[in-house]
């Protein structure tokens, strides 16, 4: 028996990185899985690998964020679990962020989850059926680095939204939780380190050596935790935003 047997799961931002790891883990645990991404060639490849249903979508468009849910329900009859895993991490400080960059971060990191959740919870409430949502957030929502100002602003908003929606729909038995993940080894992080920080081919090894556990966060480990939060095994927990990291927030040396 898998943790997600007979569940229909949608992973927004599921074509690569943490999202793709969650797609693989959810399929492994017995779910019927749909996922979104912008690049057809990447999404089609993962769909062939996993048997999951790829939906091409640009989540910066709120109509497409809502439609990701509508299309999943149309294909599979309902939606039991939603994961918002899409994230934009392009750099900007308080002093150099343009309105266009700020709006891009809000569109992907806050507005898209809002309207996907709106559609998903509406389906669950209409069917009077329990459901679960997990939002992938970031430990940087606690304050973050100076060069992540618009990212932090949007993700901190997602923290508040997660708790607000969980409180609003607790009596509908829709459980909504968030995961503040730390520095994670993904394809996107590799591209970011090279593009914005001049990293070389050995950046992963050098970064891992400086971490308390001797490694960066691993996608498969995060995915397993998300599957647990989506599943009935996580019990009654809702409105929790969990710091999934090896850095202790507030700890000082």
From TrEMBL:
Highest taxon in the source lineage: Bacteria
Cited InterPro entries: NAD(P)-bd_dom_sf, SDR_fam
Keyword Oxidoreductase attached: yes
CDD domains, per database record: SDR_c
Pfam families, sorted: adh_short_C2 (PF13561)
Gene3D superfamilies the record matches: NAD(P)-binding Rossmann-like Domain
Keywords: Oxidoreductase
Family recorded in the similarity comment: Belongs to the short-chain dehydrogenases/reductases (SDR) family.
Protein name listed in UniProt: SDR family oxidoreductase
The species this protein was found in: Streptomyces lonegramiae
Taxon lineage: Bacteria, Bacillati, Actinomycetota, Actinomycetes, Kitasatosporales
